[in-house]
């Protein structure tokens, strides 16, 4: 995973990571730091869920536990899936090749029998002709069976390949989806930004728009209500974004922690700013309630920064401009949109 947080943000997370590492028995090494960094930054929903479960049974996490968390949730978690799909695909193709070979053998034997029958017809030998006719009939039937078996194997193989392709698509999708908010994660955002910016610009098309959003006072929410409520806020934010951003061409992602991004390809700057305002209004109207009760726990607001893409601007530069506008919104009192 690539980490592209600002110096200030990463310094804030560094302090939290060091404090958490000091509460456990695992050594202070890069693996331990990476696990806690992704936990604090909110970059890895599955890691957070697994780590929280481990802490309930092992209050002071050991080196073995941290290494397991790293191995299962940080380092190449998709290799196992890819290896399984590759192995199953090879098995499907092996069965196909075997059946093709059998059909080829039957075709060769049938061709040899037809040659013998042709020679018997030329020699006009009734006794030999009768034998070759009988053998040709048998070979013909065997060839029909082999051809039918090959057709069935092709049908089965096509079905299996379709299933494997669906597995691969799901695996790719899971790589890009944040499990808590059900929007794209940082890796998915980077992938889509690369696709959007590398595509040839259409004549007369509007430039791309970007909105960066950050939940206001999120640390206070965690401190006062606990991380479970914090996770509930993040999940609710994902719901708001999925409800508000309905254009399938638009991209919604969790940038990290409590920060989100919306990419609007070929969208005017006014429409980009309007989307940011719409999300702010929808978030403001969101009320989080206690489970199985009607009591409102809290209300949430977001600050936003909007920026249109400039020719030749890299994704990092574009995000940095929108992020700077976002922090100006924070400085100006929060719950507002600032345009870069």
Strand order of the largest sheet: 2-3-1-6-7
Enumerate the spans where pLDDT stays under 50 for 5 or more consecutive residues.
Answer: none
In total, the number of strands is: 7
Helix and strand run: HHHHHHHEHHEEHEEEHE
The portion of residues forming beta strands comes to 5-15%
Q: Compute the number of structural domains.
A: 3
Helical residue percent?
A: 55-70%
Mean pLDDT: 80
Q: Which structural class fits the helix and strand makeup?
A: alpha+beta
The first-to-last residue Cα distance is: 28 Å
Multimeric organization: single chain
Shape: elongated
Architecture (CATH level 2) name of the largest domain = 2-Layer Sandwich
Sketch the major β-sheet: 5 strands, mixed
User: Mind telling me the CATH superfamily name of the largest domain?
Assistant: Reverse transcriptase/Diguanylate cyclase domain
CATH topology of the largest domain: Alpha-Beta Plaits
CATH class categorisation of the largest domain: Alpha Beta
What is the count of DSSP helices, taking H or I runs of 4+ residues? 11
What topology emerges from the helices and strands here?
Elements: H1 7-21, H2 30-41, H3 45-57, H4 63-73, H5 79-123, H6 126-176, H7 186-198, E1 209-215, H8 218-225, H9 227-244, E2 251-256, E3 259-264, H10 269-284, E4 287-289, E5 296-299, E6 302-308, H11 315-331, E7 337-339
Quick overview of this protein structure:
With 340 residues, the chain is α+β, with helices and mostly antiparallel strands. It has 11 helices and 7 strands. The longest helix is centred in the middle third of the chain and has 51 residues, at 126-176.
